[in-house]
Write a structure and sequence with these properties.
The structure holds two protein chains of two kinds.
Chain A (H helix, E strand, L loop, with lengths): L3 E6 L11 H9 L4 E7 L5 H13 L4 E6 L2 H14 L7 E5 L1 H5 L6 H19 L7 E4 L3 E5 L3 H12 L3 E5 L14 E2 L4 E2 H14 L3 E4 L2 E9 L2 E8 L14 H5 L5 E2 L8 E2 L2 E2 L11 E2 L5 H5 L4 H5 L12 E7 L1 E4 L3 E3 L16 E3 H8 L20 E8 L15 H15 L4 E6 L9 H10 L4 E4 L2 E7 L2 E8 L5 E7 L1 E6 L1 E3 L3 H8 L26 E3 L9 H18 L4 E4 L4 E3 L15 H5 L5 E7 L5 E8 L9 H5 L5 E3 L4 H12 L1
Parallel strand pairs in A: 1-2, 1-3, 3-4, 6-7, 6-18, 7-10, 18-29, 20-27, 21-22, 21-27, 22-23
Antiparallel strand pairs in A: 5-30, 8-9, 11-12, 12-17, 13-14, 15-16, 19-28, 24-25, 25-26, 31-34, 32-33
Chain B lengths: L1 E4 L10 H14 L2 E4 L11 H4 L1 H17 L4 E3 L3 H16 L1 H8 L11 E3 L1 H8 L2 H4 L4 E2 L3 E4 L9 H4 L9 H8 L3 E2 L13 H4 L1 H17 L4 E4 L2 H9 L1 H8 L7 E3 H8 L4 H4 L13 E2 L2
The chains are: A alpha/beta, B alpha/beta.
C-alpha cells in the first residue's frame, strides 16, 4: 500500500485567496493511500521544506505530492528535499494549483473542488511512480566548429582558450567569411580586415585548434558528448606541408580571367589561387572546373614554376572521421540574388551593384584599391543612390523579414562614399531606419547631419538608363508620395540576407531543425537562443538569423560558454525521462513486434534495432531500442507505437491513464 | 485553337482597328474566335470605383454567359476589361457572401469555369515556330513595347512575377523580326480615363512616354490596350502643348504589328484609322 504525503501550499495569498487550502488538505487526507496531508503558507520556505523532510521520515512516505505552483518553478526544489530525506526524487510530483487553478478562477466552491481534483490526479500518478536514476554519459572533450567566419573563429578561440580541443572546419579555401570582404565596420568605422586578420592567424596557430579549410562536414552521428563527424577534405591539388605560399603558381597560371568570388565578381583571379592576400592558410587551391590541365589534360605551368614542388594534380578528396563531444554551427549567411527585382536592372546595368560589391569597392584590398570607381568605365561616380530593403520586408517579391544589417551598412556606405568623394551626392531610399544598437542611431544621424547624405523615405519603382545616367524613379512618401527622379551614376542595392547555400542539407545531416527561410532554429527564441533542439549542438552567428558582427561574436561566445560548460565534467548527467521499449519474459521477450514505425517518428534518430539473442547467440527477435543519450523524452514514439511497447519513463501509460481516470471517478 | 472572344465596348468603337486586326490575323495563327453572345459592359472605370458588388456582378454576368456558351477560355483583348474580369473572378472565388449577392443579380449560373486570357498570353501561345518560320515579312523596326498598368497587374491576381518589368510583348516582337528597346516607361501610367476630364495631365504623362521612346530611337510604340492607344495616339495636341515638341512616332496594336509581318493588307488591319500616320511597313523576307 502506498503511503503518499500531500503538501498544500498557500503561496502567500496566491493560492489561498481563491482556494480553500485547508479544505483541500482535509479532502486529500481521505484519499486511499494518502498517509499524510497538510497545508502551509509557504511550502518552498525553509520551515515548509522541513515539514516535508520530517513527514517523509516520520510517516515513512513512499511518495510526495506538493500542491503549489508550476513544476517549472519549484519541482527541482522539492525533488531535492525528497532526495535529501532518502526518497527517490522521481517519486515526488507537483500539482499546479496556482497557474492552473487559483490564478485563473474566482473565489468560489468550484475552484476548491477543482484544486482537490488536481491533487487527487497527481496522487494517483505518484502511486504508480517508480524510482528513476539519472543517466550518465561520457563526454569527448573536443568541439567541432562548422564555419570559419567571425562567429566560428570566435567560438573556436573561446573554447580553445578554455583549454579544450577544437576542430574548425571551413568550406572555402580560407577562413574569414564575409567579414574579411568588408571595408570598414559600423558604427566605429574601424577597418574590418585589420580587426579580423589577427583573429584568423590566432585561430590557425592556436595549439588547441585543428583547422580544416576547403573542407565540409559530410555527416554527423551519435549524441551529446559522443558525436562522430565525417569531414571531407576537398583536394586542394597542393601539398599544404610543402607549399610556402610564395604565389609563383598564381603568377604562372595562364587562366587569369575568372571572376573572383572574394571580390564578388568585380575582380579576377587565376585557376590556381589564394582568395585574398591575407588568407589563412596562405596556401593556394586549384579550381578544377577552370584549370586547363583538368579540362584539357595539359598545361602544368604552375607545377613547373613551383619552387617547393608542392603541386599535386593527383590529389584526392580525403575523408577524416573525428570524435567530438559538441558541435557549434556557424555557417553564416548569404545575400539574396537580385533576379526578383528585374526593374532595378541588376545584371543589365554594370553600375547597379549589391551592397557586398560596394564593400569590395570601398575596401583598400578591393579591385579599385579603395577608390570609388564605377564598374562600367572606371570613372568616379558623382551621385550614388542607395536602395535599402531591396528584397527585405517585401512579402510580395522578396522575403518578409528584416535583414537587420542593411540600414546600418547603407548609412556606412553613404558616409564612406562622401568621405572618399567630397563633392559627391549620396541618396538613400528607405522604408524605416532601424538603427537599434549601441551607437547605431547616432551613426545614422551623423550620416544625415554631418555628411549630408540625403535620406528619402519611399520605394524605388524602377531604375533605367538614359544618356549614360541611371534614372532612379521613386516616391517621397514624406512629401505626399511625390514622385522623385534622380539621375545617378551608380546604384547600390541593399539586398536581403538569406540562409547560406547548403544550409538545408547541413541541417538534415546534423539533425537540427530549421525555419521556413532555411535559417537554423534555436531551442527557445528567448531563453535558449544558442542551443538547438538537438542536445550538444549550438548555434552562432548569422546561420540562425541575420546578424551584425557584434551580435555574431556575442552569440559565438555564448555558444562557446555552453560548450565549455558541457566539457567541465567528465560525464554528463541527464534526466531519466526517456522512452524505453519494454522487456517481458520468454518466449515473448518484448511486446515490440519490430514494425519500427518508431524509427520514422523519432525526430532525433534515437531509435535503432536491437537483436535479442539466445544463449547460443542465435537471434531470437529484433526489437526497437532507444539510445538513452540521444532520446529527448518527447514521447512521439510512444504515440506511434502500435503495440504499446514503448513507454516514457516518468510518464507511462499506466500513470497517465490513472491520472485521467481519477478525474472521471 | 478555338477560343471565346469578348470585345468590350472599345473594340467596337474607338479601337475598332484592334478588333479588325485581331480578326484579320486570327486565321493565319490558327485562332478561331467565337464571339460571346449578348455580351454586356464589364464596368471598367466607373463601376469599380463606386460599387463593389456591381463591379463584380457585371463581369460575372459576362463569365456566366461564357459558361452558358460552353467556352472553356475567353480572350479579352482590352486590358481594362481583362483586369475587371480577372478581378471579379478572383473576388468571387474568395468571397462566398459576395458570390451569393452577385448570383442574385442575374439568372445564368456562375461557377467560374471559364478561363480568362489576355492578348499577350494567347499570341505567345499561337505564334509558334511553325508560324514564325513562314512569315512572309519581317517587322524589322526598333520598337518600344508599352504594357501600361493593367495588363500584368495586380500580381496577386495575375501571378505575373515580372510585373514591374514584363517581357512577353518584347518576346513577341522579337519573333516577328522587330528589335524591342530597353526603355524606362514600360509600365508607366498613360493617364487612362483622365483623357476626358484632365486632358492636360494625360498630355504630360504621355509626353514622357513618347519622349523616352523617341530618344531611344524607337520607330513605333507597340500597345495592347485601347486606352493606352487612344491616349498616345489621339492626345498629340495635348502632348505637344506640354512638351513643346512635335512627335510623329506611330502607335500600333500588337495585333497590327503581327498583321504586318503576316503580310495582311494594311486596310484590313485598320492602320488608316489612326490619328498619327503609320508609315512603318514590313520588309519582305527573302
Amino acid at each position: 500500500m502506498s503511503r503518499i504525503g500531500v503538501f498544500i501550499c498557500h503561496c502567500g495569498e496566491n493560492i489561498s485567496s481563491t482556494v480553500d487550502c485547508e479544505q483541500v488538505s482535509k479532502a486529500c487526507a481521505t484519499i486511499p493511500g494518502v498517509a499524510h496531508s497538510v497545508d502551509y503558507k509557504y511550502m518552498c520556505s525553509d520551515p515548509g521544506q522541513s515539514l516535508i523532510r520530517e513527514a517523509i521520515k516520520e510517516k515513512n512516505l513512499t511518495g510526495v505530492v506538493v500542491a503549489a505552483c508550476s513544476p517549472r518553478m519549484h519541482e527541482p526544489t522539492f525533488r531535492r528535499v525528497c532526495a535529501e530525506s532518502g526518497l527517490n526524487p522521481f517519486l515526488c510530483e507537483m500539482a499546479n494549483l496556482r497557474e492552473q487553478c487559483s490564478w485563473v478562477h474566482p473565489k468560489e466552491a468550484r475552484t476548491t473542488e477543482k484544486a482537490i481534483d488536481i491533487v487527487s490526479m497527481l496522487v494517483e500518478k505518484v502511486k504508480r511512480n517508480k524510482p528513476l536514476y539519472p543517466i550518465n554519459v561520457p563526454v569527448t572533450k573536443t568541439a567541432l566548429v562548422i564555419g570559419g567566419g567571425i562567429a566560428g573563429i570566435q567560438a573556436a578561440l573561446d573554447i580553445a582558450n578554455a583549454r579544450q580541443k577544437v576542430i574548425l572546419v571551413e568550406r572555402d579555401p580560407s577562413i574569414g567569411g564575409h567579414m574579411s570582404q568588408l571595408s570598414e565596420t559600423f558604427p566605429t568605422l574601424d577597418c574590418s580586415q585589420c580587426i579580423l586578420t589577427p583573429r584568423m592567424v590566432e585561430a590557425a596557430q592556436h595549439p588547441n585548434i585543428t583547422l580544416y579549410t576547403y573542407s565540409e562536414v559530410e555527416s554527423l552521428a551519435g549524441f551529446i558528448g559522443n558525436f562522430t563527424a565525417r569531414i571531407r577534405k576537398k583536394a586542394r591539388s597542393v601539398d599544404e606541408k610543402l607549399c610556402t605560399g610564395c604565389g609563383e603558381c598564381a603568377t604562372a597560371c595562364p587562366i587569369k580571367k575568372i571572376p573572383s568570388e572574394f571580390n564578388t565578381g568585380l575582380g579576377m583571379r587565376s585557376a590556381i589561387y589564394v582568395p585574398f592576400p591575407q588568407a589563412v592558410p596562405n596556401k593556394p587551391v586549384i579550381d578544377r572546373t577552370k584549370c586547363t590541365y583538368f579540362l584539357k589534360g595539359k598545361c602544368k605551368f604552375c607545377e613547373s614554376k613551383c619552387p617547393a614542388n608542392a603541386i599535386r594534380f593527383d590529389q584526392q578528396d580525403e575523408f577524416i572521421d573525428v570524435q567530438v563531444g559538441s558541435v557549434v554551427v556557424a555557417t553564416g549567411f548569404n545575400i539574396k540574388e537580385t533576379s526578383f527585382f528585374p526593374e532595378y536592372g541588376y545584371g543589365v546595368y554594370k553600375d547597379v551593384i549589391t551592397g557586398l560589391q560596394f564593400e569590395r569597392i570601398l575596401s583598400a584590398s578591393g579591385p579599385t584599391l579603395g577608390e570609388v570607381k564605377r564598374p562600367s568605365d572606371g570613372t568616379t561616380p558623382k551621385k550614388i543612390v542607395f536602395i535599402a530593403c531591396a528584397g527585405s520586408r517585401d512579402p510580395a517579391k522578396g522575403i518578409e523579414y528584416c535583414s537587420k544589417i542593411c540600414c546600418m551598412y547603407t548609412a556606412k556606405h553613404a558616409m564612406l562614399y562622401k568621405h572618399k568623394v567630397h563633392d559627391a551626392d549620396a541618396y538613400v531610399f528607405y522604408m524605416d531606419i532601424r538603427a537599434a544598437g549601441k551607437g547605431y542611431d547616432e551613426f545614422v544621424r551623423r550620416a544625415i547631419e554631418e555628411d549630408h547624405v540625403q535620406y528619402i523615405r519611399g520605394r524605388v519603382s524602377r531604375v533605367y538608363e538614359r544618356n549614360g545616367k541611371l534614372i532612379v524613379k521613386g516616391a517621397d512618401t514624406l512629401l505626399g508620395a511625390q514622385p522623385v527622379e534622380i539621375e545617378a551614376d551608380m546604384v547600390v542595392l541593399a539586398t536581403a540576407s538569406v540562409a547560406n547555400e547548403g544550409a538545408e542539407a547541413l541541417a538534415q545531416a546534423l539533425h537540427v531543425s530549421y525555419d521556413g527561410h532555411r535559417f537554423f532554429s534555436e531551442a527557445h527564441p528567448k531563453l535558449r537562443p544558442v542551443e538547438t533542439n538537438t542536445a550538444g549542438i549550438f548555434l552562432a552567428g548569422a546561420c540562425q538569423a541575420p546578424k551584425d558582427i557584434p551580435e555574431s561574436v556575442g552569440q559565438a561566445s555564448a555558444a562557446a560558454s555552453k560548450v565549455i560548460g558541457l566539457f567541465s565534467s567528465d560525464e554528463l548527467t541527464r534526466e531519466p525521462v526517456i522512452a524505453v521499449v519494454n522487456r517481458t519474459a520468454p518466449p515473448v521477450y518484448s511486446t515490440c513486434v519490430g514494425c519500427f514505425l518508431c524509427f520514422t517518428a523519432c525526430p532525433y534518430g534515437a531509435i535503432g534495432p536491437e537483436e535479442i539473442k539466445g544463449r547460443d547467440g542465435a537471434v531470437l527477435k529484433t526489437v526497437a531500442n532507444v539510445n538513452p543519450g540521444l532520446c529527448q523524452g518527447c514521447g512521439t514514439c510512444v504515440a506511434f507505437c502500435r503495440s504499446r511497447s514503448i513507454d516514457l519513463q516518468g510518464f507511462t501509460h499506466d500513470q497517465m491513464y490513472a491520472e485521467v481516470m481519477e478525474l472521471f471517478a | 485553337m478555338k477560343i471565346g472572344f469578348y470585345p468590350g465596348c472599345s473594340l467596337e468603337g474607338s479601337s475598332r482597328e484592334y478588333a479588325e486586326s485581331l480578326r484579320a490575323i486570327a486565321p493565319a495563327l490558327g485562332i478561331e474566335l467565337e464571339e460571346l453572345n449578348e455580351w454586356s459592359c464589364c464596368g471598367a472605370s466607373s463601376a469599380h470605383a463606386l460599387n463593389h458588388t456591381l463591379a463584380t456582378a457585371l463581369p460575372a454576368r459576362i463569365l456566366a454567359q461564357a459558361e452558358h456558351q460552353h467556352l472553356e477560355e475567353l480572350l479579352v483583348p482590352c486590358a481594362a476589361c481583362y483586369s475587371r474580369l480577372i478581378s471579379a473572378k478572383d473576388a468571387l472565388a474568395k468571397d462566398t457572401v459576395l458570390r451569393k449577392e452577385v448570383a442574385a443579380s442575374f439568372t445564368l449560373p456562375y461557377t467560374g469555369a471559364t478561363a480568362v486570357r489576355n492578348i499577350l498570353d494567347v499570341l505567345t501561345q499561337a505564334l509558334t515556330p511553325a508560324v514564325t518560320s513562314k512569315l512572309p515579312n519581317t517587322f524589322s523596326h526598333k520598337v518600344a513595347c508599352y504594357y501600361g498598368c493593367l495588363l500584368v497587374r495586380p500580381p496577386s491576381i495575375t501571378h505575373e512575377s515580372r510585373y514591374e518589368d514584363p517581357t512577353a510583348m518584347d518576346d513577341l516582337m522579337k519573333k516577328i523580326g522587330a528589335t524591342p528597346l530597353a526603355w524606362g516607361m514600360k509600365t508607366e501610367c498613360c493617364g487612362a480615363a483622365l483623357s476626358i476630364t484632365r486632358t492636360d495631365m494625360v498630355g504630360e504623362l504621355c509626353g514622357r512616354i513618347l519622349e523616352d521612346a523617341v530618344a531611344r530611337g524607337a520607330e513605333a510604340i507597340i500597345v495592347a490596350c485601347p486606352m493606352c492607344h487612344s491616349n498616345l495616339d489621339m492626345r498629340r495636341a495635348a502632348i505637344e502643348e506640354k512638351t513643346g515638341k512635335e512627335f510623329s512616332i506611330p502607335i500600333l496594336y500588337i495585333t497590327q504589328a503581327i498583321g504586318i509581318a503576316l503580310g495582311v493588307d494594311p486596310e484590313q488591319l485598320g492602320l488608316q484609322r489612326h490619328f498619327v500616320h503609320v508609315a512603318v511597313r514590313g520588309k519582305a523576307k527573302g
